[in-house]
Every structure is written in C-alpha cells, then in structure tokens.
Amino acid sequence: METVTIRKAKADLLRLIQKACRGEAIVIARGNKPAVRLVALQDAHGNRKPGALKGKLFCPPDVFKPLTDRELKDLGFEQ
C-alpha cells in the first residue's frame, strides 16, 4: 500500500490514478495521518451477461393477488 502526502498526490495525480485503476492501494495522508484512500470505481457495465438468471427465478402464480384485510393489518396498514 503506497502512502503519499497531499502535496505529492497533487503533483502525481495521473500516476496515482493509473495505479489505483490497476488495483493498487493508494492512501493520501495529511501530514503523517492517513486522510483518504484512492480506489478505482467499478465499471458501470461490469461483466453483466443478459439472461444469466433465466430459469433460476420463480414467482408463484398468486404473487400479484390483492392482500387480505388481515394481511394488511399484520403489515401495519390499519383500515
């Protein structure tokens, strides 16, 4: 884990971002005290595969039927 001061981080920001994107841990310190950790954000699209859950999820046929008065009361919806 690399620790750098704020001043050094300002000067070498591009290099630090590249290291963080490769998965390296970067800590930016204020003086001798660690202040923040620089980490890469996950790709918004990631490794998604369309249809990966097809056939793995099940909903019973009555999943959308209205709740009874008793069920509504149990959930805190007084009538």
Task: Give the secondary structure arrangement, pairings included.
Elements: E1 2-5, H1 6-11, H2 13-21, E2 26-30, E3 33-38, H3 69-74
Parallel strand pairs: 1-2
Antiparallel strand pairs: 2-3
Overview of this structure, please?
By secondary structure, the protein is of the alpha+beta class. Helices cover 27% and strands 19% of the residues. It is built from 3 helices and 3 strands. It has helices at 6-11, 13-21, 69-74; strands at 2-5, 26-30, 33-38. The protein has a 3-stranded mixed beta sheet. Strand 2 (26-30) and strand 3 form a beta hairpin. It is elongated and about 65 Å long. The termini are far apart. The mean pLDDT is 89.
Q: Span from first to last CA? A: 59 Å
Q: What class would the helix/strand composition place it in?
A: alpha+beta
Provide mean pLDDT, rounded.
89
Which strand order do you get reading across the main beta sheet? 1-2-3
Q: Kindly state the number of beta strands.
A: 3
Major β-sheet profile: 3 strands, mixed
- Roughly how many Å is the radius of gyration? 25 Å
DSSP strand content: 15-25%
Shape: elongated
Helix proportion range: 25-40%
Q: Sketch the topology as an H/E string, one letter per element.
A: EHHEEH
Number of helices: 3
